[in-house]
Amino acid sequence: MPFVFRPAEPRDVQPITDIYNASVIAGGSTADLTPRTLDQRRDWVESHKPPYGVFVVESTGETGEETDAAPQVVGFGALSVFYDRAGYDGVTDLAYYIDPAWQGRGAGTFLLDKLLDEARARRMRKACGIIFADNAGSIALMKRFGFTRFGLMPAAATDSTGTMRDMSYWYLDL
């Protein structure tokens, strides 16, 4: 398999920041309107205390054109607090971002599969995804993994391009 999944380490904050900021700038996958600083991303990573966490996907250099390439972080994801009241413990909000150069190459599928395994191992009972309703790639992943859409909020958020977007809400019983 051309990917490795592992917990994020301090050395991963820069690639996490770069991948996230590429998504901010492109629009269509986050409601942050401006790129985040390295310190902001570091604080975000460090805010994930067990049973939550941030994880990265590295390429292994095993695909054709990547032979002998050093491993590199090509995506990241998180299991985050869904809602900060104790009654929601066991429900996690999923987030995942893939380097634009690696989109459409299986990294997102690999990452979501591993995030769900991690959520189950951490005894989560539900996983939720909150996604722009026109984000075809993420919607396809939700459907592929059996998530159910449970809501749609029209004109909920803008992205960095100034586009007003509907939000779709998805869940999976773990």
Automatic annotation (TrEMBL):
Cleaved signal peptide residues: none
GO MF entries: acyltransferase activity, transferring groups other than amino-acyl groups
Every N-acetyltransferase domain range: 3-174
One Pfam family from the record: Acetyltransf_1
Listed SUPFAM superfamilies: Acyl-CoA N-acyltransferases (Nat) (SSF55729)
The UniProt record lists the keyword Transmembrane: no
InterPro entries listed in its UniProt record: Acyl_CoA_acyltransferase, GNAT_dom
Keyword Cell inner membrane: no
The entry's keywords: Acyltransferase, Transferase
Protein name: GNAT family N-acetyltransferase
Protein source organism: Bifidobacterium callitrichidarum
